[in-house]
Amino acid sequence: MTTVQAPRSDAASASAETFDSLNPATDEVVGTYPVHTAEQVEAAVARAREAARWWDSLGFDGRAERLRRWKGILARRLTDLCEVVRQETGKPRGDAQLEAVLAIEHVAWATRNARKVLGRQRRSPGLLLSNQAATVEYQPLGVVGVIGPWNYPVYTPLGSISYALAAGNAVVFKPSEYTPGVGKWLADAFAEAVPEQPVLQLVTGFGATGAALTRADVDKIAFTGSTATGKKIMAAAAERLTPVIIEAGGKDPVLVDADADLDAAAEATVWGAFSNSGQTCIGVERVYVHERVHDEFVAKVVERAERVRAGSGPGDQYGPMTMPAQLDVVRRHIADALARGGRALVGGADTVGDRYVQPTVLVDVPEDSLAVREETFGPTVTIAKVTDMDEAVAKANDSAYGLGSTVFSKRRGLELARKLRTGQTAINAPLSFAGIASLPFGGVGDSGFGRIHGPEGLREFARAKSIARQRFTPPLALTTFARTAKTEALVGKLIARLHGRS
Ligand code: NAD
């Protein structure tokens, strides 16, 4: 049996039968997992197909009862779950708890609202077909493949999994190769709550295992990860016309208006940029500040950023980079910014170590440099001065990405938020939309498409089924060869009366 470890070359991983999950703070092996082959993935999907029929047959109440059991296990064993997250990502326990708590809120919301959102609803049949009773209901798709990333290994995949399950689907979940243990923990907890059928199964491995899931007989793929992988997944899914949700990367901006609460804006910027080592899809990467408050705001950010430290000690605010390859990206973005006239007010070229990256605050960085245009996914932030908020909106929107954004403004918060080309915007607080289970979440442009969370997230995992039931024979029979010239004339007159006057 061959086992591979990080850093993992594609050639080595292609033939390995198992792989090790490492603690990124120590390189200690914390678990060994199978590299599932395409055949094994297809077998899991076939089992899921059976399980999906049973899960669907339980109805909303039967599923809700079991999902509540699962939620109870997640909540009771929170400490245990957070320890697995900490081991595989290196993040502080408090951050692990934050993502797990938000994920549990999503399981609860999806469970509580599935019937209301997806159950049968009456629709108006319209005047011409008033003899019909029209209803729509949202039926499960069948089997959903969920492919997840490592940065929030509980919150992110559960944003798809819990909604797919609540909508009546079986799920085959392929977690990131960096966090297979978290995936296994979640699936094991589910199997304990729902022992009858394999409604949530786990497949582990590298990109090839994810690719096999994409090509398998699934009814939808919900992918969260990088834009580059999202494009590959969409191309592969096209072969079977399998629909996809793509939750990809971001380059999220913060806008700071002249009347903003600068302390709150600086605090949000520092936390949004550096927490989780900047490895947050909706993390703060760029800030545009009104010129009237620019210098004061920058001073407040610098003062706070200087107190933030990466490390794995008790006083450190964030941990190591989870994926070693990301260190090079961060190094390249900082070097490019500095080479092109940018200045590091905090950190700089030397902040990128072997595991940890200390905070970097950059100013005077040209808008066409890597640190402004590409996703850095590290603890760095650029701050730029703008003459007014129209310029801030234009610069924020001049990005291929469009995931999240934040506005700090007392008077114009809503107006500015609505102008930003992103899936979601927080006003006067950092990332607040991510914790509100009823709000849909998703991207624009290179950040992907489709929505998880909220009613829209439930409907992503269901198909609308329309039913028209005839209640009585229509006075004007239109869909028959027995239709008369008189009926046609009457309908023509009726339509002219109804719609012809405007
Ligand atoms: P990644 O694209 O490298 O990997 C994501 C998953 O895809 C992993 O499970 C991986 O094994 C799998 N995969 C790789 N190649 C594949 C292929 N050809 N076919 C099918 N599956 C394949 O991303 P990552 O490094 O794990 O995650 C970081 C990225 O995720 C960042 O860009 C971040 O912004 C993004 N992200 C987005 C959201 C969101 O909600 N929009 C949330 C979290 C993270």
Describe the biggest sheet?
Answer: 7 strands, mixed
Bound molecules: nicotinamide-adenine-dinucleotide
**N-C termini distance:** 76 Å
The average pLDDT score comes to: 96
Provide the spatial order of strands within the biggest beta sheet: 13-14-15-12-11-16-17
The overall strand count is 19
Helix content: 40-55%
Radius of gyration: 26 Å
Give the percentage of residues in beta strands: 15-25%
Globally, the shape reads globular
Structural class comes to: alpha/beta
Point out poorly predicted stretches: none
Q: Helical region count? A: 17
Report on this model:
With 502 residues, the chain is of the alpha/beta class. 42% of the residues lie in helices and 19% in strands. A seven-stranded mixed beta sheet has the order 13-14-15-12-11-16-17, with helices on both faces. A six-stranded mixed beta sheet has the order 8-7-6-9-10-18, with helices on both faces. Helix 6 links the parallel strand 6 and strand 7. The chain is globular, with a radius of gyration of 26 Å. 49% of the residues are buried. The mean pLDDT is 96. It binds nicotinamide-adenine-dinucleotide. Nicotinamide-adenine-dinucleotide is lined by residues 147-152, 156, 174, 176-177, 206-207, 210-211, 214, 224-226, 229, 232-233, 247-250, 281, 323, 375, 377, 403, 443, 448.
